[in-house]
Please model this.
Amino acid sequence: MKKAITHLKLDQANPSKLQKLDELAVEHRRVVQAYVDWLIAHEGRQPDKYALIPEQDIPTPLSDRWQRCAWQQACGIVQSWYSNERENPPVLRNACIQANTNVVVIEPSNTPQFDFWLRISTLDVRHPVRIPIKLYKRARETLTQFPKLCTGVTLNQRDGEWYATFVVERRGPKPQSSQVVGVDIGMVSIVSTSVGQRYGQVSAKLRRRVERANEKRRRKQKLNACLKRKNQPTVSLNDDKAEAFARNEIGRAINQMLDELPEGSKVALERLTVKDMRFKSRQMNRALRAAQLGYVRDKLKFKLDERGIRYRSVQAAYSTQQCSHCGFTFPMNRRSQAEFHCLWCGFEANADENAAQIIAERFGDKELNARFFRDVEAALAIRFMRRLPDARSASAGLELQPVIWLPRGKVAVAVEPPPTVNQPGLTPML
Ligand SMILES: [Zn+2]
Model:
């Protein structure tokens, strides 16, 4: 159960800090408005808060994290605008910033004068401001009843005064102790969960940095080939700075995920082998190298241990191709890195979320978890067919549409039906 603590005045800060907040708010509002206009111009009825931001169209000095934050706020505004069937496009009048933990952090205070500090990122990169907060009496009472402070702060300006809103939580009557949350590691986001959250967007900045690092690496490899021929000592291929940057992003994404994990849930992780990681990192356009995916997995396990959360690694084979709705497993169910579209039942979802769902379902799946990677496909095919109503008929009820559109929307090909009961291990030919 959650409750909001509103009207926390930010008047204890010195004026220069508040001026920085004012400057930030002006730019933030401009950008949110621009995103809203952009979404409405592009008829984004169901805006995706994780989608790529139209950075080219809307240049801004806001950091990547602030941009993401503004984008999510704009998505919310546009969605409610459409669902309320309003006619006049929304115009933002008041300064209101819905900040997540990537841009505003609540820190407990060690001094008796204040209860908390808000660390707010500003337009000055790497120069956040710290603003003290003193709880009023009612707020203090609420906090004793709802002792868990959620991440995410809303900042409002009214009549020239700044106010913050906190969200607090207390354990409901029934902790969902049996819930298993599946976690998928890194394709489009660093981690995605089966409860529909994604953390650590591989931001444009990270992608640029990693690309540059890869470029450097290739040059160094060439140089090393030369040096070897001349029998001279070679140079190290590592780029420590880029690596540190990526790891920082990974740590942040994992912490955020664990903070928001439902109370008492267990976690299902992919059992990632080196081979899977190579495959994944290739699909990720080398945005995160295989080594980094391994790092994500290890870091995640470390933090789960640290917080005493139960977890289990499950067989992850074909988790990207299996439909979480009907179980149909087919390579072309996954059209791109981001989209999942089941060719059997038509189920559509974000590909990472679908995979995370599959991983959650495999938490207690002893049969599948005991199998080798190569045997999983056959097992999944048999299970899928057993579920069909007329499984005993000759074709096992599998009349797949004969023509399927390939991604990139240009070629149509005939596809043979998936394997029948009698030939379980057969891969459909494309
Ligand atoms: Zn399906």
User: Anything to note?
Assistant: Residues 15-41 form the longest helix (27 residues). The pocket of zinc ion is lined by residues 323, 325-326, 328, 342, 344-345, 347 (CB under 6 Å). Residues 34 and 403 are 41 Å apart (CA to CA).
